[in-house]
Amino acid sequence: MAREGARPGYDPAGHDAALRATLQEVRTGRWMSMRRLLGETTAWWQWTQRTQVLAAAAAGTDVVRTWLAEEPYSVPGTVMRARVAVERALRAHREQHARTLDLWREAWQASHTATQAAPQDPVPWVCLLALARLDRERRWEEHRLAPPGPMLPPGPWGLLAEADKRDPYNREAHHRMLQFLYEHGTSGRLAEAVGYAHWAADTAPPGSALHVLPLYVRVERYRRSGGRDAALDLHWVAEDATREAQRARYAWFEQTFEAERSPLDLNHLAHALWGALQFPEAARVFDALGPYWTPLPWAYRSPEPGDRGQALEVFLQARARCRPA
After folding, report:
1. Position 4 pLDDT exceeds 80
2. What DSSP designation does 154 have?
3. Cα–Cα distances in angstroms (integers) from residue 211 to residues 199, 208, 318, in the given order
4. Quick check: is 76 in a domain?
5. 16 within a domain of the structure (yes/no)
6. Contact status, residue 145 vs residue 158, Cβ threshold 8 Å
7. What is the model's pTM?
């Protein structure tokens, strides 16, 4: 439990101490620790999480290229090459960089190579799902397949199915699908994303992080509304908002161990329970966060969403309000 009033820090590794140590090595261009850590990672949920965080750190370096120069047939290295290529393509997309198309092609090829090198691994398919959002016109047939259920839109369902086949209810795969729907939703509306998030949560077993998905969509809806308006506080205390927060707590938080919980999911749950005035329940989630926090979703409740300091103040105020309960 974090000391009362202590200021938390942002750390993408969260409670994963082994990943944190490896990140320090990767940032300085050393790859041996990464190879060792990935070699010790056996659970798909942890493999997915670790490769994603490592790729974000490695994308600005040549560390994976150096690794593959030494071990060109390394399967984990091949998967990490795809991860890094996708991270670079997505960054270029966000920044509207002139090389986005080239980086997209490189990432697509690297991801397909990884599907062949690691046929049982869900991550290469998660990579292809992540790239689907770059196809804004849905020109690729694999990005507009018929959905598996009613009231769901066409999309890259085949890619999601491949990831799901290898790791059922893979957290990142479903978040990538949600991001695709954010980007491709009809007329900018979130109805498709809302329907998808509830469909995914309804089909997920107890303990699955997919029960938190509706909380992400509610935050996105608030963000698009402009937020930071007292009248919009009702957005968080509405009956359906309270129901979503409590369901995520019961079906996910209460059914998992500390190591399995994403810091981002914990922050979204703490935020949702606080917003729904469920202070005792929120306090337990804040305690589970310990010394860590993430800027989102708190940034959207601050006067300047891009100001991390303001986001931290919102987090601290929310935690202080919930702790006495």
Report:
1. no
2. -
3. 10, 6, 22
4. yes
5. yes
6. yes
7. 0.94
Residue spans of alpha helices (H) in the chain: 17-27, 32-40, 44-58, 63-70, 75-94, 100-117, 123-132, 157-166, 171-184, 191-203, 213-225, 234-237, 239-251, 263-275, 279-289, 308-322
Cβ pair 20, 61 in contact under 8 A: no
Paired tokens of 239: 């009956």
First to last CA, the chain: 16
* Cα 45 from chain centre: 12
∠ CA 41-47-53, rounded to 5°: 115
Tokens standing for residue 214: 């509706």
In Å, how far from its chain's centre is CA 35? Answer: 23
* 16's tokens: 């994963």
CA atoms within 13 A on the CB side of 277: 6
Classify residue 177: in a domain, yes or no. Answer: no
Q: CA–CA separation, 270 vs 165, rounded Å?
A: 31
Question: 1 pLDDT band (50/70/90 cuts)?
Answer: very low
Overall domain count for the chain: 1
Instruction: Give the 3-state secondary structure of residue 249.
Output: helix
Q: Can you tell me which residue has the tokens 């059922």?
A: 168
**Gap between the Cα atoms of 216 and 236, Å rounded:** 12
Query: Which of 294, 317, 265, 300 lies closest to 9, judged by CA?
Result: 294
Q: Which residues form the domain of 75?
A: 11-137+165-172
Residues 18-44: pLDDT tens digits? 999 999 999 999 999 999 999 999 999
List pLDDT tens digits, range 76-109. 999 999 999 999 999 999 988 899 999 999 999 9
- Say how far residue 66 (Cα) sits from the centre of its chain: 27
- Asked, for residue 74, whether it belongs to a domain, the answer is yes
Residue 88, both tokens = 């670079």
- Measure the CA–CA gap between 299 and 154, rounded to whole angstroms: 32
The answer to whether the beta carbons of residues 321 and 274 sit under 8 Å apart is yes
